[in-house]
Design brief:
alpha+beta, three-stranded antiparallel sheet, 169 residues
């Protein structure tokens, strides 16, 4: 069985790429074909179509993490490590932009990221990024049944050296 996890847009706000494509196409129509504008149009479509994703295959316990642009997926098949589990973490991002005129724009977003972790939770590999945890809900039972990947709480092992260093502060 193959399971394709939700895709993640590389550029979640592609407005600037639409503007690049629109300006380049208007100039192409008005001025005629110009060799510099064709790469500009292709750059705009690259930004619009760029995405990341993961496909899991249960027959041989492999995963395909890919980067897709223009609908062409590029990546490689990797083995899912034994004793692996999945962890869903909520991540919060904030962006603050100011202009020369003194206006400020502040934007916050919260997303859920699904990671594949090893037994000690020291290695984590991002396999899906969604806007809310509800989008992951239909995939979790399949991950547990077909791939033996249980959803666990993220708790990395802290070494004795690290805990001693933190106590001495």
């Amino acid at each position: 069985m193959k399971l394709e996890l939700p895709k993640e847009k590389v550029f979640p706000m592609p407005f600037r790429f639409w503007v690049i494509v629109a300006v380049a196409l208007v100039i192409l129509v008005v001025n005629g074909w110009h060799p510099v504008l064709f790469p500009l149009v292709m750059f705009g479509f690259w930004g619009i179509t760029a995405s990341r994703g993961t496909v899991l295959r249960s027959e041989d316990q492999m995963m395909f993490r890919y980067y897709s642009v223009y609908g062409i997926s590029m990546g490689s098949w990797e083995e899912i490590k034994p004793n692996a589990a999945v962890v869903a973490l909520d991540e919060q991002y904030s962006v603050r932009q100011t202009s020369y005129g003194g206006t400020m724009r502040y934007q916050e977003s919260q997303e859920s990221v699904l990671y594949l972790v090893n037994g000690t939770h020291r290695e984590k590999v991002k396999i899906a990024k969604v806007s809310s945890r509800e989008e992951l809900t239909p995939h979790l039972p399949i991950l547990e049944q077909e791939f033996n990947l249980k959803l666990v709480k993220f708790s990395p092992v802290v070494s004795a050296k690290t805990s001693a260093r933190k106590r001495n502060r």
